[in-house]
Design goal:
The chain is an alpha+beta fold and 262 residues long. The protein is built from 10 helices and 10 strands. It has 2 domains: 135 residues, no CATH class; 99 residues, VSR Endonuclease (Endonuclease, Chain A, 3-Layer(aba) Sandwich), CATH 3.40.960. Helices cover 44% and strands 15% of the residues. The protein has a 4-stranded mixed β-sheet with strand order 1-2-4-3. It has a 4-stranded mixed β-sheet with strand order 7-8-9-10, sandwiched between helices. A two-stranded antiparallel ribbon has the order 5-6.
Length: 262
C-alpha cells in the first residue's frame, strides 16, 4: 500500500517506486520543523546499524506516534534528547549519543552493543560519554539496555547485528561453547573484516547469512572472503539465518562438531 503524505509530491518514472532516499525525504518534509530521521533509519544513514527494516522512522517535536506504512512518526522527547543533531548526505539525524539512546528502545543489548562499538570505531561516541548518559537518565527503562550494551563493549564484545545472531549467541552460551569473539573487526587478520562468530583458539569462523547473501554479487563476495580466510588458516562455516531461527539446536550441534574436528 502506498501512502501519499500531505506536503509531498512525486514526479517522473520513480514516483510509483520511490527509493529509500526519496521516502526519507518525504518523511522529513511531512514531519516539518525540527524533524530528524530516528531509530533504525537514522542508524542506517549514520552507518552504525545496517539491519534496518523497510520502515522509515522520523521524529519531530510536534508529532505523536503514528504509523502510515512505510512511515513511523515519533514525537521527539526534547527533554531527553536535546543535543545538537547532525546532517549526513542531506538528512538530519540525532546526535550519536541520542541515537544510541533512541535505539536502546528497539534493539537488544547485544544489538545495541554493535551500535555502540561501531559508533566508537567511527569516533562518534566514547564509553565515557555513554557512562554520563546512563548516569543522567538512571531509572529510565531504555537505560538498562544501554548500560548492558556498554558493559558488553567494555568487556571486548562487538555485539550482534541481527535477531538471528542474537538467537545463535544465546544458544551457544546455553550449550557451554561461547565464541571468543563476536563481530570484532580485524580479529582474523583482515582489518576491514567483521567475522560473525570466532573461536580463535580453534581457528573457526561461523557466519550467519540472511537473504541478502543469496544475491549473486554477495555470494561472489562471500566466496572471495572465505578464500582469504582459508589462506590464513581459518575454517569458515556458514549457516542460513532461517535455520538459526527455526532449529538453533541443530546449528549448535554442527558448530560443536566443527570445534571438535579442529
Amino acid at each position: 500500500m502506498r501512502v501519499i503524505l500531505p506536503q509531498t509530491y512525486g514526479v517522473g518514472p520513480h514516483a510509483e517506486s520511490p527509493t529509500a532516499e526519496m521516502l526519507r525525504s518525504a518523511g522529513l518534509l511531512f514531519a516539518g520543523r525540527g524533524a530528524r530521521l530516528s531509530g533504525p533509519t537514522a542508524g542506517a544513514v549514520t552507518g552504525v546499524w545496517s539491519r534496518g527494516s523497510d520502515e522509515v522512522h522520523v521524529s519531530a517535536p510536534g508529532l505523536r506516534k503514528t504509523r502510515l506504512e512505510p512511515f513511523v512518526f515519533h514525537r521527539t522527547q526534547t527533554e531527553r534528547f536535546a543535543r545538537r543533531g547532525r546532517v549526513i548526505d542531506g538528512f538530519a539525524v540525532p546526535h550519536p549519543l541520542d541515537l544510541c539512546a533512541d535505539l536502546a528502545r528497539s534493539l537488544s543489548s547485544l544489538q545495541l552493543a554493535h551500535v555502540v562499538d561501531r559508533s566508537r570505531y567511527q569516533e562518534l561516541v566514547t564509553l565515557e560519554g555513554i557512562d554520563a548518559l546512563c548516569e543522567q537518565w538512571a531509572g529510565v527503562p531504555f537505560v538498562t539496555v544501554l548500560r548492558e550494551a556498554r558493559d558488553l563493549v567494555r568487556g571486548g564484545s562487538a555485539g550482534t547485528r541481527s535477531v538471528s545472531e542474537d538467537i545463535l549467541h544465546q544458544a551457544l552460551l546455553r550449550a557451554g561453547i561461547p565464541p571468543t569473539h563476536v563481530n570484532v573487526r580485524g580479529i582474523l587478520g583482515v582489518p576491514s573484516d567483521e567475522p560473525d562468530f570466532v573461536w580463535l583458539d580453534r581457528r573457526l569462523n561461523v557466519e550467519v547469512d540472511g537473504r541478502q547473501h543469496d544475491e549473486p554479487e554477495q555470494r561472489a563476495l562471500d566466496g572471495a572472503r572465505d578464500e582469504v580466510m582459508r589462506s590464513l588458516g581459518i575454517r569458515v562455516t556458514r549457516f542460513r539465518a532461517a535455520d538459526v531461527r527455526r532449529r538453533p539446536g541443530w546449528v549448535v550441534q554442527q558448530i560443536r562438531a566443527a570445534l571438535r574436528a579442529g
